[in-house]
Amino acid sequence: MIGVIGVVVALLAAHSALAQDKTQHYNLDDTKIALDGYSPVSYFEEGQAEKGSKQYKSQYEGVSYYFTSKTQKTTFENDPSKYVPAYGGWCAFGISVGGLFRADPEKFKIVDGQLLVFLNDIEVDARKLWNETPNGDVVNTKKAKDNWVHFSKGQRPS
User: Fold this and answer.
1) Tens of pLDDT along the chain (158 residues)?
2) Summary count for the chain: helices (H), strands (E)
3) Which residues have C-beta within 8 Å of that of residue 39, sequence separation ≥ 6?
4) CA count, 13 A, side-chain hemisphere, 70
5) What HEC string does 73-135 produce?
6) CA distance 154 to 59
């Protein structure tokens, strides 16, 4: 009997570790709420950032997402990978230059069907920098994708 309990405990620990691994490289605080509670579906359907409600909450890969309505929640649950922010919700421009910068969920852009969010503070408007790069969507997206391979494994790009 003790052997069975040991196996169950080991399986639970492994499952917990796998769940943690999926979120450890995401731009999240301890609440594990993506996009500071903004609805990822709104960016695509409304073309704007809209705060979601905890009444319409869904989880995907250990991360919580809030929505403005039950319809949005269902839309997300039918194809979550379409709506989650690229690069773990970190600033897309930051990822493209090899850095991890917190993003402002109100500064966003949809590129090739992916939600990109950007740093925006008193000193830097990263979406503006992204857009000012010649052929920025192509050049910066390639750099960001290449760098994200490293960041998503807990490594710094070389």
Assistant:
1) 455 444 333 333 434 444 445 677 889 989 999 999 999 999 999 999 999 999 999 999 999 999 999 999 999 999 999 999 999 999 999 999 999 999 999 999 999 999 999 999 999 999 999 999 999 999 999 999 999 999 998 888 87
2) 7, 4
3) 50, 51, 52, 65, 66, 67, 68, 72
4) 0
5) HHHHHHCHHHHCEHHHHCEHHHHHCCCCCCCEEEEEEEECCEEEEECECCCCEHHHHHHHCCC
6) 23
What are the phi and psi torsion angles at 52 (to 5°)?
Answer: -90, -175
Domains of the chain, by residue range, sit at 27-82, 85-158
CA separation (Å) from 145 to 11, 27, 152?
33, 16, 10
